Amino acid sequence: MSTMTPPRLSSRVAGWTAHVVLFGAVVLFALAVHAHYPIQHWLFWRYACYWLLAILFSFACLSAGCRIVAAVSRPLPVGKVGFNAQLAGWAAHDGPLYGLAAILLALGVGWLGGTVMRRF
């Protein structure tokens, strides 16, 4: 069983120091660039605004769409009719006979396909 030792104070200080130095460098860079091209005019802020509006619009469409679907939708009845219903009933009542017929039909169709393909 191994016990984990807490990180030393020097490694934690080094980690925070790196974060502070990086933040200071970003601030100095922004101040240097701001003199030539003001930050409030950067194209990034326009795109950030457009992205925010697009996300809000998407959420509004999603919530409105859910309300419309909930108001309009009805239950859809699904059932078996015709030959499919007869076949399903036969399979439910006479399972072994249905299985044997299915196997014989598959063998017959396979044999017929092989015979037809041999001639071509």
Question: Could you characterize the architecture of this molecule?
Answer:
With 120 residues, the protein is an all-alpha fold. It has two domains: 10-72, no CATH class; 88-119. It is built from four helices and no strands. It has helices at residues 9-34, 43-72, 83-93, 95-119. Helix 3 (83-93) packs across helix 4 (95-119). The chain is elongated.
Tally of individual helices = 4
Number of domains: 2
Task: Give the % helix.
Answer: over 70%
Count the strands?
0
**Classification by helices and strands:** mainly alpha
Q: Strand content of the residues, in percent?
A: under 5%
Estimated radius of gyration = 36 Å
How can the largest sheet be summarized?
none
Order of helices and strands: HHHH
Indicate the low-confidence ranges by residue numbers: none
Beginning-to-end CA distance, first to last residue: 74 Å
Shape from CA axes? Answer: elongated
Average pLDDT over all residues = 87
Give me the secondary-structure topology.
Blueprint: H1 9-34, H2 43-72, H3 83-93, H4 95-119
Brief rundown of the structure:
The chain is mostly helical and 120 residues long. The chain contains 4 helices and no strands.
